[in-house]
Write a structure and sequence with these properties.
Length: 110
C-alpha cells in the first residue's frame, strides 16, 4: 500500500498535514498553516526536500529519544517526526519518508 499525505483543518482555522506510510503510521507531521494553499505548498516542499539526505536534521529530544526534522532549502522546518526508541528506528523513519513522499497521494479529511 502506498503512503499518503493527509490534509486536515486545525481547530484554529488553519491546516496541517501528516505523511503516513503504507501501513498507516504517521512518519512526518507538518507545522500549522494559515491557509489550505500554503499547506499544499508545504506538501510539495516535502516531496522535493525528502530526496536530499542533508535536509534531514537528526536530533535527540529532551527525554533522550531520537527524532528528526525535515528542513526546506532555507533551513525552515517543514516536518517533524515522532520520537523513536532507537537511532536505527529513526533512520528507518527517514528512509520511509524518502520512499513515500514523492509518490504519496493527497487525501483531505474534514
Amino acid at each position: 500500500m502506498a503512503g499518503k499525505f493527509v490534509l486536515k483543518p486545525t481547530s484554529s482555522g488553519g491546516y496541517r498535514f501528516n505523511l503516513k506510510a503504507g501501513n498507516g503510521e504517521i512518519i512526518l507531521t507538518s507545522q500549522s498553516y494559515a491557509a489550505k494553499e500554503s499547506a499544499l505548498h508545504g506538501i510539495e516542499s516535502v516531496r522535493e526536500n525528502a530526496q536530499k539526505d542533508e535536509r534531514f536534521e537528526r536530533l535527540t529530544d529532551k527525554a533522550g529519544q531520537p527524532r528528526f526534522n525535515l528542513l526546506a532549502g532555507n533551513g525552515q522546518v517543514i516536518g517533524t517526526s515522532e520520537s523513536y526508541s532507537s537511532t536505527a528506528a529513526r533512520d528507518h523513519g527517514i528512509e520511509s519518508v524518502k520512499e513515500n513522499a514523492p509518490k504519496a497521494a493527497v487525501v483531505e479529511e474534514v
